[in-house]
Automatic annotation (TrEMBL):
<keyword id="KW-0119">Carbohydrate metabolism</keyword>
<dbReference type="GO" id="GO:0008843">
    <property type="term" value="F:endochitinase activity"/>
</dbReference>
<dbReference type="Pfam" id="PF02018">
    <property type="entry name" value="CBM_4_9"/>
</dbReference>
<dbReference type="InterPro" id="IPR001223">
    <property type="entry name" value="Glyco_hydro18_cat"/>
</dbReference>
<dbReference type="InterPro" id="IPR003961">
    <property type="entry name" value="FN3_dom"/>
</dbReference>
<keyword id="KW-0326">Glycosidase</keyword>
<protein>
    <recommendedName>
        <fullName>chitinase</fullName>
        <ecNumber>3.2.1.14</ecNumber>
    </recommendedName>
</protein>
<comment type="similarity">
    <text>Belongs to the glycosyl hydrolase 18 family. Chitinase class II subfamily.</text>
</comment>
<dbReference type="GO" id="GO:0008061">
    <property type="term" value="F:chitin binding"/>
</dbReference>
<dbReference type="GO" id="GO:0000272">
    <property type="term" value="P:polysaccharide catabolic process"/>
</dbReference>
<feature type="signal peptide">
    <location>
        <begin position="1"/>
        <end position="23"/>
    </location>
</feature>
<feature type="domain" description="Fibronectin type-III">
    <location>
        <begin position="156"/>
        <end position="236"/>
    </location>
</feature>
<dbReference type="InterPro" id="IPR017853">
    <property type="entry name" value="GH"/>
</dbReference>
<feature type="domain" description="GH18">
    <location>
        <begin position="244"/>
        <end position="578"/>
    </location>
</feature>
<dbReference type="InterPro" id="IPR003305">
    <property type="entry name" value="CenC_carb-bd"/>
</dbReference>
<dbReference type="InterPro" id="IPR050542">
    <property type="entry name" value="Glycosyl_Hydrlase18_Chitinase"/>
</dbReference>
<dbReference type="InterPro" id="IPR036116">
    <property type="entry name" value="FN3_sf"/>
</dbReference>
Amino acid sequence: MRRAVAAAAALLMAVVFAQPVSAANLLTNAGFESGSLSGWSCSGGSVVSSPVHSGSYALSASDLGKCTQTVTVRPSTTYTVSAWVRGNPVYLGVTGGPSTWAAPSAYQQLSLTFTSGASQTSAELYLHGWYGAGTYYADDVVFDGPGGGNPGTPATPGTPSATATASSITLSWPAVGGATGYRVYEGSSLRTTVSGTSATVGGLGACATHTYTVAAYNAAGESARSAPVSATTTGCQQADLPRHALIGYLHASFANGSGYVRMADVPAAWDVINLAFGEPTTVTSGDIRFALCPVAECPNVESEADFTAGIRAKQAQGKKVLLSIGGQNGQVQLTTTAARDKFVQSVAAIIDKYGLDGLDVDFEGHSLYLNAGDTDFRNPTTPVVVNLIAALKSLKARYGSDFVLTMAPETFFVQVGHQFYGGAGGGDNRTGSYLPVIHAMRDALTVLHVQDYNSGPVMGLDGQYHNMGGADFHIAMTDMVKAGFPVARTGHTFPGLREDQIAFGLPAAVSAGNGYTPPSAVHDALNCLARNQSCGGYTLRGGASPAIRGLMTWSINWDRYYGWEFQNSHEPFLNGLP
């Protein structure tokens, strides 16, 4: 079972490298003798001078740290693959092919043979450790056999860069020696062919995200495709929100230790107020109900008329009031189309009753999951996911461009999908299950504020585990949402969101949830994310986000209970961001 979990987080190492037919080792910098990870694109891992198998350097990585490259191979050809390894358990293999592993205390050679398929022109070599097992070392890696494709086929282009207008996306990439021209692909579809190192794909709709790869070609054939790059055309409908917003949940339907706060008593500092919670009559009914907290639980609850008047007063101040569905206890599984339709009808009825500005999706627990074999977040097949997407699209169409849509998933359902994806098997089938919903709704999504609390350690794009409660957790988790990330072993990459769509969530106080972060650490995280300052040694893969939307908290009630520390600390700081 542990081997299966480790395989699910396979560390891909691939290099596409044009070689003559007589070439032996197809890898570049195979022994790391450059003294760097040159030739490898690594997220985590480093080059060390000890222990080495030969030469002066070797690779060091912590359990599931990863590096990426790309190798062209000849169809129906047998190759020998090997690596010298030591330390904690380390796996060597070819994706879709054989693998082997060992955990030697001294360097030991792992080896296997791999035969390419009848039409296969590229192969992925991987090394990875064992989940939670610690550091391993690798050196003198070999992929031995004839060079890929036909002799003289160009090398793979470097990762393209992209810029966008409302109707087009322009790509550019480094020149490849020996290339006659370049082909731009979107998925399996050829979009354009050019002789230079840039191309513009036109005729696109506004506020639409597209992902492209580039291949070089000449008379000998076509290279493997570059790493993907995603871009979103401009013209997105911008919610009528402040550039940097303070977002909070209001316990409107229940009481807890923090006490009830009337709508009229919510301070003006809060830009978005999420009413917690709308919940289903049964888990699979799709019939969502919302009612104010009963007097028996909340003696100071206002009347329906006063509650509605309070909403109108907030809206007159430019605030947004949303219905939040789910929460810890509100499990919602839209397993059927009937439940989907009932969800749309019942949610719309609540929105219309109170004149709300939109919807917040706070599905937790077992509301979302992925069936075995559902491995492509771009084309999900699991009913609870497919039906939720359809329902959200229907609500968005019903209310138009002013409809505010936010989501508050836990890290387990988003960032953990970088290591484990539920439909791929080998673990909990809920991991990463929000990704298809976020992706399908990305052009209609106003704000994604992942809950950076009640979370276990999560591996970031730096290949390191990050723990909640400090600035580095918020930096690493938010950077993943901005930069995008490979999704476990599915072969697909989740494209990052626009910076104005991104906030992060944290508890308002120590009693509100695990992962409370002191205000100074929150400010360090915001300075890093918005200004690329105070990053504590972390390198932003997604770059600075001066238009980051802001902060979310659970909850307004707990903030009042603790003397408004969250509001008073963070609202002025947000206003001072660029």
